[in-house]
Amino acid sequence: MHVDTPLHYLESRIYDEISVGDSSSLIRTLRAEDIQLFAIMSGDMNPAITDGEFAHSGMFREVIAHGMWSASLISTTLGTQFPGPGTILIDQALHFARPVTIGDTITITVTVKQKFDHNHHIIFDCSCVNQEGLQVVHGTAEVLAPIEKMRTKRVDLPDITISDKYARLQNLVARAKGLAAIDMAVVHPCDKESLKGALMAAEAGLIDPILIGPESKIRAIAEENGFDLKQHRIVNVKHSHESAAMAVTLIRNGDAEALMKGSLHTDEMMAEVVSRAAGLRTSRRISHVFLMDVPTYPRPILISDAAINIAPTLEDKVDIIQNAIDLAHIIGIAEPKVAILSAVETVNPKIQSTLDAAALCKMADRGQIKGGLLDGPLAFDNAVSIVAAKTKGINSAVAGRAEILIVPDLESGNMVAKQLEYLANALSAGIVLGAKVPIVLTSRADTAETRIASCVIATLIAHANRNKLANAE
């Protein structure tokens, strides 16, 4: 007899109800998340299992599951289906015949082989076969079967989101694979994180850094932290203000094609960038974009402007949006969905951001903003949640699917971005657009990983600029 378990309840079969030959089965498909969760739970970080690159160079040429993942499914079948609740595992002997890889569907079958009346023990034959009918695990399990009937409501397990920031960073770095490193002027890298970020970006093949600042201080930080500067250029200047001026000069002379902020204050560097006499202005308004990879959101989010324009006017917002759309195109979003944020989703004459949103959407309709799909005003929940949008009766191609968030002012944008980074474990990259070159602009508190992510975006922009120049010629 084959035993099926009820959908909504876990119910045991007591020893006296079980006969030799009775069986039960469970079916599971291996997901990448299962491997990660099992590694976290067990602490087994074998690179053949958790490191894709290492695994592909090994015996099986792909990532495989922990052997005990399959074995644990046998325990699951015994403990939840047959005999079910109250079952105690006494002994188990298993043979692992072949690996289980991501996407394999495993059928676990336990069959009663022998019963022992004196102690209520049962020996089961256990078999796990894949979707091709090939055996991956087989063996036996001895259990103490329940002698009293148990019936309990099945408990739904909580949803789990794996927030692997390192993996997300590697995926972002892979976007620049095959692109030549760009010359980047690193302005005053005079603390550990700013120098480490530049060197890690260089090691990843993204940039060739030109370190600008007091040479003795840069070398002291490198020596203190074990950083190797032998392959990297250092331009010796006296202080941070001079570092910013020198970096802009290198850009104007064609000696570098991107800037990266180090440990100086943003205002100090940007004052040189926006200088009308010798800065890096273009006809476009300079603005900042945070590119956020949020583990609980299915697509990247660009947030602008959260670092440069304090209280942007309607005219400023046109350039802010166009800068963000142009970046979205560079990272592969053909027609980005742009949500113009406010506190409400209706136009209110007393709230200027709602009036701006309505005007910007109409400007997009008239071709004054190109390359994106705009909607607004939208409250934050309506911009990122389809459920929230539908609840409020908002019928929009942007609502709930936004890829660009245009905030009313710097304060709100900065708060949104930092909340996502610190409370939602988002991977963030910060870049300044609208100047002659991309500018990596991160907080002095940001980690080296954030600086690397920002260098990826700067590299993509620099190569896009090269292609545009080549096509123009």
Blueprint (SSEs and pairs):
Layout: E1 9-11, E2 23-29, H1 32-42, H2 47-50, H3 52-56, H4 67-80, E3 88-96, E4 105-116, E5 121-129, E6 135-144, E7 151-153, H5 165-174, E8 182-187, H6 192-203, E9 207-213, H7 215-225, E10 233-236, H8 240-252, E11 258-261, H9 266-273, E12 287-293, E13 301-304, H10 314-330, E14 337-341, H11 352-365, E15 373-378, H12 380-384, H13 386-391, E16 404-406, H14 410-423, E17 427-433, E18 439-440, H15 448-472
Parallel strand pairs: 8-9, 8-11, 9-10, 11-18, 13-16, 14-15, 14-16
Antiparallel strand pairs: 1-7, 2-4, 3-6, 4-5, 5-6, 12-13, 12-17, 17-18
Helix pairs in contact: 5-15, 6-15, 8-9
Structure, explained:
The chain has 473 residues and is an alpha/beta fold. The protein folds into 3 domains: 9-153, Hotdog Thioesterase (Thiol Ester Dehydrase, Chain A); 163-281, Rossmann fold (3-Layer(aba) Sandwich); 285-434, Isopropylmalate Dehydrogenase (3-Layer(aba) Sandwich), CATH 3.40.718. It is 36% helix and 23% strand.
Average pLDDT level: 89
**Span of the ends, CA to CA:** 78 Å
Shape: elongated
Q: Number of DSSP strands?
A: 18
Determine the structural class based on helices, strands and strand pairing.
Answer: alpha/beta
User: Which percent band covers the strand fraction?
Assistant: 15-25%
Radius of gyration: 29 Å
Main sheet record: 11 strands, mixed
Low-confidence stretches: 54-60
The CATH class name of the largest domain reads Alpha Beta
- CATH topology of the largest domain, anyone? Isopropylmalate Dehydrogenase
